[in-house]
Amino acid sequence: MKYVAYLRVSTARQGQSGLGLEAQRAAIGSLVAQRGGNVLETFVEVESGKINARPELAKALHLAKVTGATLVIAKLDRLSRNAAFLLALQDSGARFIAADMPDANELTVGIMALVAQQERQAISKRTTEALQAAKARGQQLGNPNGAASLRRAARGNAAAVAAVKARADAHAIALRPVLLELRAKGYNTLSCLAEQLNKRGILTPRGGAWHRSSVANLIARVALR
Q1: Residues 117 and 208 in one domain
Q2: Are residues 84 and 141 in the same domain?
Q3: E-only strand ranges, 77-223
Q4: Based on the structure, what is the number of domains in the chain?
Q5: Cα separation of 193 and 55, whole Å?
Q6: What pLDDT, on the 0 to 100 scale, is given for residue 100?
Q7: β-pair partners for 9
Q8: How far is it, in rounded angstroms, from Cα 54 to Cα 163?
Q9: Both 116 and 214 in a single domain?
Q10: Are 216 and 113 found together in one domain?
Q11: How confident is the prediction along the chain (225 residues), in pLDDT tens digits per residue?
Q12: Ramachandran bin of 53, using left for φ above 0, alpha for ψ from -120 to 50, beta for the remaining angles
Protein backbone atom coordinates (compact mmCIF):
# COMPACT_ATOMS: atom_id res chain seq x y z
CA MET A 1 0.00 0.00 0.00
CA LYS A 2 1.39 3.41 -1.00
CA TYR A 3 1.05 6.49 1.21
CA VAL A 4 1.84 10.19 0.95
CA ALA A 5 2.39 11.82 4.35
CA TYR A 6 1.29 15.37 5.21
CA LEU A 7 2.44 17.10 8.40
CA ARG A 8 1.57 20.58 9.62
CA VAL A 9 2.84 22.87 12.36
CA SER A 10 1.52 26.32 13.17
CA THR A 11 4.64 28.47 13.39
CA ALA A 12 8.03 28.81 11.74
CA ARG A 13 9.67 28.30 15.14
CA GLN A 14 7.95 24.95 15.55
CA GLY A 15 8.95 23.99 12.03
CA GLN A 16 12.62 24.79 12.65
CA SER A 17 12.76 23.08 16.03
CA GLY A 18 10.80 20.02 14.94
CA LEU A 19 8.43 20.53 17.86
CA GLY A 20 5.26 18.61 17.04
CA LEU A 21 6.66 17.16 13.81
CA GLU A 22 8.32 14.17 15.41
CA ALA A 23 5.10 13.16 17.16
CA GLN A 24 3.25 13.40 13.85
CA ARG A 25 5.93 11.39 12.06
CA ALA A 26 5.75 8.72 14.75
CA ALA A 27 1.94 8.46 14.54
CA ILE A 28 2.02 8.24 10.74
CA GLY A 29 4.90 5.77 10.76
CA SER A 30 3.09 3.52 13.21
CA LEU A 31 -0.12 3.51 11.16
CA VAL A 32 1.69 2.84 7.87
CA ALA A 33 3.70 0.02 9.46
CA GLN A 34 0.54 -1.58 10.86
CA ARG A 35 -0.93 -1.64 7.35
CA GLY A 36 2.23 -2.94 5.71
CA GLY A 37 2.68 0.13 3.50
CA ASN A 38 5.41 2.55 2.57
CA VAL A 39 5.54 6.36 2.39
CA LEU A 40 6.37 7.69 -1.08
CA GLU A 41 7.05 11.23 0.09
CA THR A 42 6.45 13.46 3.10
CA PHE A 43 5.22 17.07 2.81
CA VAL A 44 5.58 19.50 5.71
CA GLU A 45 3.48 22.67 5.95
CA VAL A 46 4.52 25.48 8.30
CA GLU A 47 1.44 27.67 8.40
CA SER A 48 -1.07 29.29 10.69
CA GLY A 49 -4.34 27.38 10.94
CA LYS A 50 -6.12 30.59 9.88
CA ILE A 51 -4.27 30.84 6.57
CA ASN A 52 -6.08 29.23 3.66
CA ALA A 53 -3.08 28.85 1.31
CA ARG A 54 -1.69 25.34 1.66
CA PRO A 55 0.87 24.77 -1.14
CA GLU A 56 2.37 21.66 0.48
CA LEU A 57 -1.08 20.16 0.95
CA ALA A 58 -1.83 20.78 -2.73
CA LYS A 59 1.39 18.98 -3.69
CA ALA A 60 0.63 16.08 -1.36
CA LEU A 61 -2.91 15.67 -2.70
CA HIS A 62 -1.70 15.82 -6.31
CA LEU A 63 0.97 13.17 -5.74
CA ALA A 64 -1.51 10.93 -3.93
CA LYS A 65 -4.00 11.23 -6.76
CA VAL A 66 -1.61 10.59 -9.64
CA THR A 67 0.12 7.66 -7.94
CA GLY A 68 -3.02 6.10 -6.50
CA ALA A 69 -1.57 6.48 -3.02
CA THR A 70 -3.44 7.32 0.16
CA LEU A 71 -2.84 10.65 1.89
CA VAL A 72 -2.03 10.02 5.55
CA ILE A 73 -2.08 12.66 8.30
CA ALA A 74 -1.44 12.34 12.01
CA LYS A 75 -4.37 14.22 13.51
CA LEU A 76 -7.56 15.11 11.70
CA ASP A 77 -9.10 16.62 14.84
CA ARG A 78 -6.47 19.43 14.93
CA LEU A 79 -7.65 20.54 11.49
CA SER A 80 -11.36 19.88 11.91
CA ARG A 81 -12.23 23.57 12.30
CA ASN A 82 -10.28 24.71 9.24
CA ALA A 83 -12.70 24.77 6.32
CA ALA A 84 -9.97 25.40 3.71
CA PHE A 85 -8.12 22.21 4.62
CA LEU A 86 -11.26 20.09 4.81
CA LEU A 87 -12.72 21.35 1.54
CA ALA A 88 -9.42 20.78 -0.26
CA LEU A 89 -9.32 17.25 1.12
CA GLN A 90 -12.92 16.57 0.16
CA ASP A 91 -12.65 18.02 -3.36
CA SER A 92 -9.34 16.39 -4.26
CA GLY A 93 -10.78 12.95 -4.88
CA ALA A 94 -7.71 11.43 -3.22
CA ARG A 95 -8.06 8.69 -0.64
CA PHE A 96 -6.99 9.66 2.87
CA ILE A 97 -6.57 8.31 6.36
CA ALA A 98 -5.85 9.94 9.73
CA ALA A 99 -3.88 8.18 12.46
CA ASP A 100 -6.15 9.55 15.20
CA MET A 101 -9.40 8.91 13.30
CA PRO A 102 -8.76 5.87 11.05
CA ASP A 103 -12.49 5.35 10.43
CA ALA A 104 -13.07 8.88 9.11
CA ASN A 105 -14.43 8.98 5.56
CA GLU A 106 -15.59 11.44 2.91
CA LEU A 107 -18.92 11.93 4.71
CA THR A 108 -17.16 12.75 7.97
CA VAL A 109 -14.91 15.29 6.29
CA GLY A 110 -17.82 16.78 4.35
CA ILE A 111 -19.76 17.37 7.57
CA MET A 112 -16.70 18.84 9.27
CA ALA A 113 -16.12 21.19 6.35
CA LEU A 114 -19.74 22.33 6.35
CA VAL A 115 -19.72 22.94 10.10
CA ALA A 116 -16.38 24.79 10.03
CA GLN A 117 -17.38 27.03 7.14
CA GLN A 118 -20.89 27.77 8.38
CA GLU A 119 -19.70 28.38 11.93
CA ARG A 120 -17.07 30.89 10.82
CA GLN A 121 -19.51 32.80 8.60
CA ALA A 122 -22.41 32.77 11.03
CA ILE A 123 -20.34 33.83 14.03
CA SER A 124 -18.78 36.71 12.10
CA LYS A 125 -22.10 37.94 10.73
CA ARG A 126 -24.13 37.70 13.95
CA THR A 127 -21.40 39.17 16.14
CA THR A 128 -20.97 42.12 13.79
CA GLU A 129 -24.72 42.74 13.68
CA ALA A 130 -25.00 42.62 17.49
CA LEU A 131 -22.14 45.08 17.97
CA GLN A 132 -23.43 47.44 15.28
CA ALA A 133 -26.90 47.49 16.87
CA ALA A 134 -25.42 48.28 20.26
CA LYS A 135 -23.24 51.03 18.81
CA ALA A 136 -26.25 52.57 17.04
CA ARG A 137 -27.99 52.81 20.43
CA GLY A 138 -24.98 54.74 21.75
CA GLN A 139 -23.94 51.91 24.04
CA GLN A 140 -20.33 51.70 25.19
CA LEU A 141 -18.72 48.51 23.97
CA GLY A 142 -16.22 46.26 25.68
CA ASN A 143 -15.77 44.61 29.07
CA PRO A 144 -12.40 44.55 30.87
CA ASN A 145 -13.18 41.20 32.49
CA GLY A 146 -13.69 39.43 29.15
CA ALA A 147 -16.37 37.10 27.83
CA ALA A 148 -15.57 34.30 30.28
CA SER A 149 -16.65 36.37 33.28
CA LEU A 150 -19.80 37.43 31.45
CA ARG A 151 -20.74 33.81 30.90
CA ARG A 152 -20.09 33.01 34.57
CA ALA A 153 -21.87 36.02 36.03
CA ALA A 154 -24.54 36.44 33.33
CA ARG A 155 -24.11 40.20 33.51
CA GLY A 156 -22.07 42.99 31.97
CA ASN A 157 -22.14 44.94 28.78
CA ALA A 158 -25.27 43.95 26.87
CA ALA A 159 -23.50 43.97 23.51
CA ALA A 160 -20.80 41.60 24.73
CA VAL A 161 -23.44 39.28 26.22
CA ALA A 162 -25.29 39.35 22.90
CA ALA A 163 -22.07 38.48 21.07
CA VAL A 164 -21.44 35.48 23.32
CA LYS A 165 -25.03 34.28 22.81
CA ALA A 166 -24.77 34.80 19.04
CA ARG A 167 -21.65 32.67 18.93
CA ALA A 168 -23.29 29.85 20.88
CA ASP A 169 -26.46 29.99 18.77
CA ALA A 170 -24.51 29.96 15.50
CA HIS A 171 -22.44 27.02 16.69
CA ALA A 172 -25.58 25.10 17.62
CA ILE A 173 -27.26 25.78 14.26
CA ALA A 174 -24.16 24.62 12.41
CA LEU A 175 -24.11 21.37 14.39
CA ARG A 176 -27.79 20.52 13.84
CA PRO A 177 -27.06 18.38 10.70
CA VAL A 178 -24.44 16.47 12.68
CA LEU A 179 -26.91 15.72 15.48
CA LEU A 180 -29.50 14.52 12.97
CA GLU A 181 -26.95 12.24 11.31
CA LEU A 182 -25.85 10.77 14.65
CA ARG A 183 -29.44 10.16 15.74
CA ALA A 184 -30.18 8.45 12.44
CA LYS A 185 -27.30 6.09 13.22
CA GLY A 186 -28.81 5.23 16.60
CA TYR A 187 -26.78 7.51 18.89
CA ASN A 188 -29.63 8.89 20.96
CA THR A 189 -28.36 9.25 24.52
CA LEU A 190 -26.48 12.32 25.74
CA SER A 191 -23.44 10.20 26.58
CA CYS A 192 -23.33 8.57 23.13
CA LEU A 193 -23.75 11.90 21.36
CA ALA A 194 -20.97 13.47 23.43
CA GLU A 195 -18.67 10.55 22.64
CA GLN A 196 -19.35 10.75 18.89
CA LEU A 197 -18.88 14.54 18.74
CA ASN A 198 -15.54 14.17 20.52
CA LYS A 199 -14.47 11.36 18.18
CA ARG A 200 -15.14 13.62 15.19
CA GLY A 201 -12.95 16.33 16.68
CA ILE A 202 -15.86 18.79 16.92
CA LEU A 203 -15.39 21.30 19.73
CA THR A 204 -17.88 23.06 21.99
CA PRO A 205 -18.40 26.84 21.53
CA ARG A 206 -15.75 27.35 24.24
CA GLY A 207 -13.30 25.10 22.39
CA GLY A 208 -13.54 22.18 24.82
CA ALA A 209 -14.73 18.58 24.86
CA TRP A 210 -18.38 17.54 24.92
CA HIS A 211 -20.13 16.20 28.03
CA ARG A 212 -23.72 15.22 28.78
CA SER A 213 -24.57 18.73 30.01
CA SER A 214 -23.07 20.51 26.99
CA VAL A 215 -24.88 18.16 24.59
CA ALA A 216 -28.14 18.82 26.45
CA ASN A 217 -27.57 22.58 26.04
CA LEU A 218 -26.83 22.08 22.34
CA ILE A 219 -30.04 20.11 21.80
CA ALA A 220 -32.04 22.77 23.65
CA ARG A 221 -30.56 25.56 21.50
CA VAL A 222 -31.59 23.90 18.24
CA ALA A 223 -34.94 22.77 19.68
CA LEU A 224 -34.19 19.17 18.70
CA ARG A 225 -36.30 16.73 20.66
Answers
A1: yes
A2: no
A3: 95-98
A4: 2
A5: 36
A6: 83
A7: 46
A8: 31
A9: yes
A10: yes
A11: 899 999 987 764 444 444 478 889 999 999 999 999 999 999 998 765 455 567 888 889 889 888 889 999 888 755 555 666 677 777 777 788 888 888 776 666 667 666 656 666 666 676 777 777 767 777 665 555 555 554 555 555 666 666 667 777 777 787 888 888 888 889 889 999 888 888 877 778 777 788 999 888 888 887 765
A12: beta
In this structure, are 113 and 97 located in the same domain? no
Residues in the chain: 225
Question: Is there a contact between 207 and 80 (Cβ–Cβ < 8 Å)?
Answer: no
Closest CA to 75 of 12, 20, 34, 114: 20
Q: Note whether 116 and 203 are same-domain residues.
A: yes
In DSSP notation, 12-78 reads: HHHHHHTTTHHHHHHHHHHHHHHTT-EEEEEEEEE--TT----HHHHHHHHHHHHHT-EEEES-SGG
What's the domain range around 75? 2-104
Identity at 152, one-letter amino acid code:
R
- Interatomic CA distance for residues 147 and 161, integer angstroms: 8
Q: Which contacts qualify for 29-36: CB closer than 8 Å, 24 or more apart?
A: 30/99, 31/72, 31/97, 31/99, 31/102, 32/1, 32/3, 32/5, 32/72, 35/1, 36/1
